[in-house]
Amino acid sequence: MKKNYLSKKAQALKPSGIRRFFDLAAGMKGVVSLGVGEPDFVTPWTVREAAILSIEQGYTSYSANAGLLELRKEISGYMKKQFNVMYSPSSEIIVTVGASQAIDIAMRTILDPGDEVIIIEPCFVSYSPMVDMAGGVPVHVQALKENDFKILPSQLEEVITEKTKAILLCSPNNPTGSMLNKKELEEIAEIAVKYDLLVIADEIYAELVYDEEYTSLALIKGMRERTILISGFSKGFAMTGWRLGFVCAPEEITQAMLKIHQYAIMCAPTMAQFAAIEALKNGRSDVEEMVKSYRRRRNYIVQSFNDMGLTCHTPGGAFYAFPSIESTGLSSEEFAERLLLEESVAVVPGNVFGVSGEGHIRCSYATSMEQLQEAVKRMNRFINKLI
Ligand code: PLP
Fold first, then answer.
1. In this structure, what DSSP letter does residue 209 have?
2. Dihedral of CA 22/27/32/38: which sign?
3. Rounded-to-integer distance, Cα 331 and Cα 339, Å
4. Given a cut of 70, is residue 185 above it in pLDDT?
5. Nearest CA to ligand 1 atom 8
6. Residue 124 Cα: closest atom of ligand 1
7. Given 3.40.50.620, 3.40.640.10, 2.60.40.3880, 3.40.50.2300, which CATH number is that of 46-281?
8. Which end of the chain is less congested by CB atoms within 10 angstroms, N or C?
9. Which CATH superfamily is domain 8-43+285-386 in?
10. 89 CA to middle of ligand 1, Å?
């Protein structure tokens, strides 16, 4: 009999629920997509030009494992200026292959088999598999819509055990767009300190906030020493394809992560790092323009959903709206599938982000105003047919 070459872990992993919808949509014509979680903007030209120049000048070799020192210095300056958090470029920052790899090395650095990580749902689809692949145990807790999809400290306390090692926190959130304010972060910080937990703060959407000023978790009293702060260029700088992110953490944790990074990846792509230097040096006005545009689109889409009877809270950040579809009587899968097949609009069913996402759909508004208007027109028609 043929040997099974696949590990038990690989066999047990389920494909992302988002994929199924992308595959369905890929075979159709004229689809308006609110499905993908990436900016519709092309990376600003000067940033692209910096990468081209680096190639022309022959910078085609590996960089330092932690990334070009010049880039780490820029990241350090950026984090100080934008978020008032301080990290040493020489010992507390690693440039990674997207925030994705930063999350992966963070997990592999802190988890022993059986260690628990609290994951707040609805959440980014990769969190649970990444904890699992690192040998940890994901413990899910549900942020509820009646609390604007924000977790309550008491809910965290309920699931903490002796094995809890860390909380994984994402604000602004994918898929809900919910953003925790300073007071809410302080309440979570209190729990982390009380139980001596690490917090992995996924701040990849920190640039994309629309109403309130952003507070980084590392800024909260007692948190810098227990925070692994993850961010990157994909969302705020419209650089998803460059695969560039970074992680900031206290030196001891950073140096341990660096060992894993070094053996697994060596370093992030050098030309992408040159592009990122330019993005940080001169990209502020581009980011501000994109934020303005996202804000306009958010206001339009949230209002439109509420007008068509799909209750939608106003997301404070990221580029996702997460309206309720409960009034239609359909499950989120049924709603998304029928909307795609009957009106060619692609959205993501909320249940793929965890059980508390059921009854909702995730709609990315990182697409043009014309496309959003077309999607609203089609969705109105679809809803009217249902009633
Ligand atoms: N974290 C969250 C919450 C995300 O939504 C995403 C991408 O969708 C990532 C991390 C991964 O980003 P990157 O492209 O930097 O790997």
1. B
2. positive
3. 12
4. yes
5. 37
6. 3
7. 3.40.640.10
8. N
9. Aspartate Aminotransferase, domain 1 (3.90.1150.10)
10. 23
